[in-house]
Amino acid sequence: MRQRRLFYLFILLMIASMPVAGQYQDLQLWSSVGIRTNITPKLRIGIEEEARFFENISLLDKLNSDLTVDYELFDGVRVGLLYRLIVNREKDGDYELKHRFSASLAAEKQKGPWKLGVNLKFQKTYDEFFHSDDWYLPKNYLRVEGEISRPLNMNRAEPYATLEWWYYLPQGQQAFFDQYRLTLGVKHKLAKDHRINVYYRIQQEIQVEDPLFAHVLGIGYLFTWRR
Asked: What's the rounded Cα separation, in Å, for the pair 51 and 221?
């Protein structure tokens, strides 16, 4: 019953997060393809390519290339590292490279038919190396995400909801929350090693000038390579 209330709370948060007058709104599309494999029973690596389109899905916003490594400390708890190469569209229309490094701690617990999870992530994003005088000064975030899901149809489909907060840690300034994401989606197994993820996401900027309210349509494909 408690897990069901949490799921309904996510729905209410979605409704409460509808944009107010004066906010800039955008429709975006995020699509990804990835592959993952186990090196040992507890250690796995993965790569993923993602393209993000914005301005009502008319322009390419970002290309993300990810390399991930994660390790199962014990049942339901994993630590991970990520490197992301970002091709980012700037305000002048040019594309520039960025580099992101992050470390994460994720935990998941089964409660009856429901799965509850939390993911803590610290990330540092750098502008293109040696491209400017202050390229070595990163943009730092602490991200906190909660998830609730319920596997259905013998675990072939898994509807889920997530809420993620981004806590900005500027150099020499007061830290603050500057955005959050609310997501409703379904993960579906096409076959034993093939899975797709389809979702709708609200991304809301807060405590910044000209905050963006983005409606994100997402689709991702993941192949698990069993060696």
From this structure: 13
Comparing 30-44, 133-147, 213-227, the range with the smallest average pLDDT is: 133-147
Helix (H, G, I), strand (E, B) or coil at 194: strand
Tell me: the pLDDT tens digits for 90-136?
A: 888 899 999 999 999 999 999 989 999 999 999 999 998 777 777 77
pTM recorded for the entire structure = 0.88
The total of structural domains in the chain comes to: 1
CATH number assigned to the domain comprising residue 31: 2.40.160.40
Burial (0-12, 13-18, 19+ Cβ within 10 Å), 203: buried
- Joined together, the tokens standing for residue 201 give 């996401």
Q: Which among 104, 117, 125 has a CA at the least distance from the CA of 168?
A: 125
Q: What are the respective helix, strand and coil percentages of the chain, to the nearest 5?
A: 5, 70, 25
Tell me how far apart the terminal alpha carbons of the chain are, to the nearest angstrom. 40
Q: Contact, 70 vs 78, CB < 8 A?
A: yes
User: Cβ neighbours of residue 24 under 8 Å, at least 6 residues apart?
Assistant: 210, 211, 212, 213
User: Which pLDDT score, from 0 to 100, does residue 132 have?
Assistant: 75
Q: Token digits for 162?
A: 């997530």
User: What's the CA gap between 185 and 158, in Å, rounded?
Assistant: 8
Those residues whose C-beta lies under 8 Å from the C-beta of residue 4, and which sit 6 or more positions away, are 114
Name the residue range of residue 97's domain: 2-225
Read off the pLDDT of residues 146-163 as tens digits, 9 standing for 90 and up: 999 999 988 899 999 999
- For residue 215, pLDDT over 80 is answered with yes
